[in-house]
């Protein structure tokens, strides 16, 4: 994916807002390499790394910066809906027999602080927001989602993590688009398209276990059946 964003005097600019070529005086938001802008007729303006191979992270880092800017300005975030189900009922019967809503749809919360890419233990979340004692990690997906190592750490430490997916967005993802996805209603948005998804919620695992207990107590005989499939988590971040 071509990177449309360059950094100039600490500000993010698109390739169409700057002078052509090296005269743009921009650097890569990720690796600080000097950039040159390309403004041809055929494709949307973009930046490339001058005399060097592209680090490939410019666009992604630019979106992290924009997400932080947006959250700092708005000081609120739209939480995606979160329903969990008994994974035992899915394993034994193939259906979701017990279900609980942990986060209602359209829930918008105000936040107290917003921090960019600060290390938490083994991982570096894209953006960290805090509300009182609660910490929420915001992941911005452009090309790469959360890898298995990061996911394992998130689940081990039981961190609150939402991933906002911009990988299917058409055209340049700008501040307006990010603002919409991160803070406003996603009504009308297609399922799974450009909106948040819970990767983990601090109550998720214990609620699944509670629901499993409810399911087993109602259907004790199911335990002697052979499970149809094994599902470690009722909620699957990657569909
Ligand atoms: Zn770079």
List keywords for this structure.
5 helices; 13 strands; 239 residues; five-stranded mixed sheet; two-stranded antiparallel sheet; disordered C terminus; binds zinc ion
Overall 3D geometry? Answer: elongated
Tally of helical segments: 5
Intertermini distance: 23 Å
Q: What is the count of structural domains? A: 2
Number of distinct beta strands: 13
Could you outline the blueprint of secondary structure elements for this entry?
Elements: E1 5-8, E2 11-14, E3 35-38, E4 46-49, H1 58-74, E5 76-79, E6 82-85, H2 87-93, E7 99-103, E8 107-110, E9 113-116, E10 127-131, E11 134-141, H3 148-157, E12 160-165, H4 175-183, E13 196-200, H5 204-218
Helix pairs in contact: 1-4
The structure holds zinc ion (ZN).
Give a description of the structure.
The structure is a single chain. The protein is elongated and about 75 Å long. Strand 1 (5-8) and strand 2 (11-14) form a beta hairpin. The strands form 5 sheets. The protein has a 5-stranded mixed β-sheet with strand order 9-10-11-12-13. A two-stranded antiparallel ribbon has the order 1-2. The protein has helices at residues 58-74, 87-93, 148-157, 175-183, 204-218; strands at residues 5-8, 11-14, 35-38, 46-49, 76-79, 82-85, 99-103, 107-110, 113-116, 127-131, 134-141, 160-165, 196-200. Helix 1 (58-74) crosses helix 4. The chain has 2 domains: 5-56, no CATH class; 63-218, no CATH class. It is built from 5 helices and 13 strands. The protein is of the alpha+beta class and 239 residues long. Zinc ion is lined by residues 28, 30-31, 33, 49, 55, 57-58.
